[in-house]
Design goal:
single chain; 197 residues; mainly alpha; 50s Ribosomal Protein L17, Chain: A; 2 domains; three-stranded antiparallel β-sheet; 6 helices; 10% strand
C-alpha cells in the first residue's frame, strides 16, 4: 500500500524529478507560462505556489530558500521584486492550468500552466537590462527642427554615397578597359611571334 507516499513519480528518479520541476518552475516564472503534460503541471503547481509564498515574505531567509530551487538570479529578482508583491492580496492559487487536449504522438493530455494575472505583468527578465540602461540615460525629446536636420543629413549622406559609387564604377570601367587593351596587345604580339616561327 502507498500510505504516506504523496505526489506523482512521473517515471523518474527523485533527483531527476526535482531537477525537472526546478527547471520548469524557472521557465514558468521567467516567461509567465509553460506548456507541459497534465501530471507534470499538477506537480509544478505546488512547487511554484510555494516559491511565490516565499517571495511574498520577502526576507533574506525566504530568498535563500528560493535560491535552493532556482539558480537563475535574474528570475529570483523578478520573483521577489515583481511577482511576489503583485500577489500580496491573494492568499493562494497563483497559477492556472488550462487543458489543451491530447498530444498528437502519444495522446498525452497537454495543458498550459500560467500565472494568474500575468496579463498586466511585464517581461522583467527580457527587458530588465534594457530598463536599467534606459533609466541611466536622460530622455531627450525630439523637436521638429531636430527631425528636419536629421532628414537633411540623411539626404546628404545618400547623395555622397551615390557620388562615391559612380566614381568607383568609372574607375572599374577604366581599369577593365586597360586590361582588355593589354590582353589584345599580348595576343597580337603572340600571333606575330607565331608567324615569324
Amino acid at each position: 500500500m502507498r500510505h504516506g507516499k504523496r505526489g506523482r513519480k512521473l517515471g523518474r528518479t527523485a533527483s531527476h524529478k526535482k531537477a525537472m520541476l526546478n527547471n520548469m518552475a524557472t521557465s514558468l516564472l521567467e516567461k509567465g507560462k509553460v506548456r507541459t503534460t497534465l501530471p507534470k503541471a499538477k506537480e509544478l503547481r505546488g512547487v511554484v505556489e510555494r516559491l511565490i509564498t516565499f517571495a511574498k515574505r520577502g526576507d533574506l531567509h525566504a530568498r535563500r530558500q528560493v535560491l535552493r530551487r532556482i539558480q537563475n538570479k535574474v528570475v529570483v529578482s523578478k520573483l521577489f521584486e515583481e511577482i511576489g508583491p503583485s500577489f500580496e492580496d491573494r492568499t493562494g492559487g497563483y497559477t492556472r492550468i488550462l487543458k489543451l487536449g491530447p498530444r498528437r504522438g502519444d495522446s498525452s493530455e497537454l495543458c498550459l500552466v500560467e500565472l494568474v494575472g500575468d496579463e498586466v505583468r511585464s517581461d522583467y527578465a527580457e527587458s530588465g537590462a534594457e530598463t536599467q540602461a534606459v533609466a541611466t540615460e536622460p530622455e531627450v525629446e525630439e523637436t521638429p527642427t531636430d527631425t528636419v536636420a536629421a532628414e537633411e543629413e540623411a539626404v546628404e549622406t545618400v547623395e555622397e554615397a551615390s557620388e562615391e559609387e559612380t566614381v568607383e564604377e568609372e574607375t572599374q570601367v577604366e581599369a577593365s578597359a586597360e586590361t582588355a587593351d593589354a590582353e589584345d596587345e599580348t595576343e597580337e604580339s603572340d600571333e606575330g611571334d607565331k608567324k615569324d616561327a
